[in-house]
Task: structure prediction
Amino acid sequence: MTATQEPAAQAEIGRDRRRKEDQRLITGRTRWTDNITLPGMLHLAMVRSPFAHARITSIDTSAAKAGRNVVTVLTGADLGEAQGACINAWPVVEDQVTPDHLPMPTDRVAFAGETVAVVVARSAAEARDAAELVEVDYEELPAALDLKEAAAAHESGGTLAHPDLGTNVTAVWRFDSAEAGTGGDVEAAIAEARDSGILIEREYRQQRLIPAFMEPRSVVVDPTGEQITIWSATQIPHILRFALAATTGVPESKIRVIAPDVGGGFGGKLQQTPEEMIAFAVARRLGKPVKFTETRSESLLTAHHGRDQWQRLTLAATKEGTVTGLKVDLLADLGAYVAIVGGGVPVLGAFMFNAIYKFPAYQFQTTNVLTNKAWTDAYRGAGRPEATYAIERLMDELAAEVGVDPLEIRERNWINHEEFPFTTVAGLEYDSGNYEAATARAKEMFGYDALRAEQAERRARGDKVQLGLGVSTFTEMCGLAPSRVLGSLNYGAGGWEHAEVRMLATGTVEVVTGASAHGQGHETAFSQIVADRLGVPFEDVEILHGDTQISHKGLDTYGSRSLVVGGEALVRAVDKVIEKARPVAAHLLEASADDLEFSGGSFTVKGTDQGMAIQEIATAVFAAHNLPDGMEPSLDSEATYDPVNFNYPHGTHLCAVEVDTETGQVKLRKYVCCDDIGVVINPLIVAGQVHGGLVQGIAQALWEEAIYDENGTLVTGSFVDYLLPTAADTITFEIDHTTSPSTTNSLGTKGVGEAGTIASTPAVVNAVVDAVRHLGVNDITMPCTPERVWRAINDGSSGGETTEAAMPHFDETEGGVQ
Amino acid sequence: MIPAAFEYVAPTSVEEALAALAEHGDDAKIIAGGQSLLPVLRMRLNAPEWVIDLGRIDSLRGVRDGGDHLVIGAMTTHHDVGRDPLVHEHALLISKAITHLADAQVRHRGTFGGALAHADPAGDLGAPALALGSTFVVQGPGGTREIPGADFFVDLFETAISDDEILTEVRVPKHDGWGASYEKFVRIAHQWPIVAVAATVRLEGDTIAEARVGLTNMGSTPLRAHAVEEALAGRPATEDAVAGAAALVADGTNPPSDLNGDADYRRHIATVMTRRAVLAAAGRG
Ligand SMILES: Cc1cc2nc3c(=O)[nH]c(=O)nc-3n(C[C@H](O)[C@H](O)[C@H](O)COP(=O)(O)OP(=O)(O)OC[C@H]3O[C@@H](n4cnc5c(N)ncnc54)[C@H](O)[C@@H]3O)c2cc1C
Result:
């Protein structure tokens, strides 16, 4: 036997591989949930409350039941306990006030869009038609809508989102560096700054956003097999299975959840939804397969929203601009129910307000509040964009106060690269980073000095179009999460991930991961990792995921965790395969195991040309004719990896905008970023993640906002009014990387999924404010609409509230045929 | 989003379409490109029993030279109108407006007549059609009648077309040699205008001899800015002179307030956009 394989010509890690999944995804050949059609399948339509808060006094389903091809119409009362419940996995404090969340409430609705009855018919169209015939009588109740008023309602006698609870406050979660022993006393720092330093006090609004994934949510349930099978457009098949079992009493072993190809999530599909629960209950009751696919309108109305906070911030600093303390007081709007992560979102942000800086004292408090609006939960970045926005806006304000360049103020306060690993005032240990290098590179790409000169020139000239330069740095805790840390925060699950490697008889490799991709490109990146480590061709690796029958163990995809936690599990499983193969190779090569070297996919006997490829060994193990005595005939291996620490990507983002002072219109001029995400597996995928993230973050700064009117009706109920940008609204982004390998995983990788979103929002708003600061503006409320920018310029405000009305492009009274 | 069930007919002549309309009356809706009607049906804001499709009536499609005016068939798509050399030569303002109208997909299905009959005050075609002094030709059981531009738009989503009539064509007086510009103020690219201004001017040397200005989304119908037109006539095409005239644009308008801007802001934007549109139309932009 001789070495049959050339060493891999090019390393897979670091290679610009086109995504192998794109062929099927882009051509639509794949199986999205809504494409699934089963024999005898019935279709569901939801009857939804038009009121934000109302008592259900009666539901008359008789006319709907008589509709053509209608099988039945069911209410929450009809389904009873079989409908299960929507769970909150993270009660952030022991005494959290958590309203019961039935998928279909029986007596009271708590937000507009909540389902009160479900129609089951032979076609989706017939189900929809009959849904119009369900007569629901409501007794309207006052709705808690304004976050600040709701937060105070228990004291002011204001409106309660859930009257029985006696309060809208579900939890107050607090961190104080003096109490935790991780830093000093923030009140002392504030007092000193008030006396002899600089105190910046601000209140910022994190507007409500809608994740707006491309594929609306869809669920198919087939109860006809021994296991009940659920296909769902979800990010979390494993967690969904757990929640179904835990709340319906159906044994977990009787449930199979499949997340087939899923068209985006951004956190918006990190949820156990009422619709999934209702479909599950209806299918079980009727014994027939059912399908529910939401419309875009339903998606905007009822899929969870994100952000929605008021941030009260106090930054204490010396006159020279060295920060001495930061105090954060949040109000977080959870909407009508505490969602699966729910109140944990602001808590995830709690550790990040101190960002890349060496603050000596820090205090954080979030008050989590219920209102009669759609529930909120994770949305790309989950808590960390909010935190980054706050601190990066404050650092610009501090720079303006001290009178130095915003980059300089950051440099005065950031952690220097020699100081890693660094334990922060929030108690986290940052693994690695080099803020100096990333910032220097970003500045160079941007042409910072030339743009500053142009800005000065335009100001001097009194140009109607002013130039603004915005800076944002960021870091985030990626790779959720060490299970012990989650436990200490009272989270309901762990943060490990699982992987398996199966060596097939013909030499190809099946890899099973518990991470559940929904557009990220796991199949390509994971194949590259396995191909490199195992020394097999990229094309020979198949990644399997998203089906609890195949991937029986996993904690799914969110929080930039798949590569750094799931990838590490994969590496460990691959290494086990190699170690299992070693004695076989030794046996077949008639050499000592100690004399074997493994590289490029082959074991070779040191100092000889004798060798054997791992794929040949796989075939030999399959045949099992000639194995070492007592050896189990299998190379297959698995690993479950629980991270010991997070990892901390970072980056410096620079944005230039042109502000038309006559209209308030903001135009992007230039955007560069230099991110440090450790070792990059596939630069092309990373570029895609960064570009998409940037657009989402820029959209928060400039365009997107979910708005409710005074009745609690979602005004931005379609893409006519919820302004989602397209390629036509963006510019060419220039991106680059510095590399400080993570020290917390063997590949040295850090998360990238949320990076672009986190840093871009403050970079853009800082740029807009910078463009008009000389006109007396120091804040503009997001999104920075032209009207707000114009008003800020003209009356020195931050732009004020928007009018809560939509543009009526589709005539509601048209033709008089109703 | 599934519309309620409806019956569908696709006649091949205007007469057949009118017959179908007469037969089903209030229970029927005409569909042209469907770009406004289909969303209405799918959101179940309306549920006609009959949908009468004009798509197979060839005579309603195309642009003709009518002598001193152009004839634009109601069923000509935005895409076709926008690319038509006759339109470009004789009614440049319309070509300019269409480059800003929606996206390529919508422009390939939506029609000139459908957009005008829909009468969305935020629609991009009403203001240019008005500014150019267009006449709207409708056909009903009693034959055809011509509706002057000033009478065509009645209110929000309401025109002078009767329930038993069909808009067949729009006659646009030729404006040969006039410069034109459509300034559309939006927050994102594929949005309806928050405010837009359609301006076309005829220059004599450096003087604006004549100007026509139309306003989008400054009231419940598209508007013609007569005061601005009069103020511009005979003035030099300079920034100051044009700004002076543009300052009159908001007088008497009643723009909406919504999440893209309140009425006062829209009035301000209209002033700025008018100045820019006129200067651009005069080649001074
Ligand atoms: C995503 C999107 C973006 C858009 N953006 C813009 C934009 O930026 N600017 C803009 O101006 N428009 C925009 N539109 C609307 C577009 O211009 C439509 O094409 C237009 O409003 C309607 O034209 P249609 O041919 O599709 O008419 P339809 O939708 O078929 O009909 C509209 C109405 O007119 C009636 N009707 C149609 N034809 C006739 C006729 N010949 N006689 C009598 N009644 C008739 C119908 O009964 C119906 O009530 C957008 C549409 C969409 C879907």
Residues 562-589 of chain A form the longest helix (28 residues). The two ends of chain A are 81 Å apart (CA to CA).
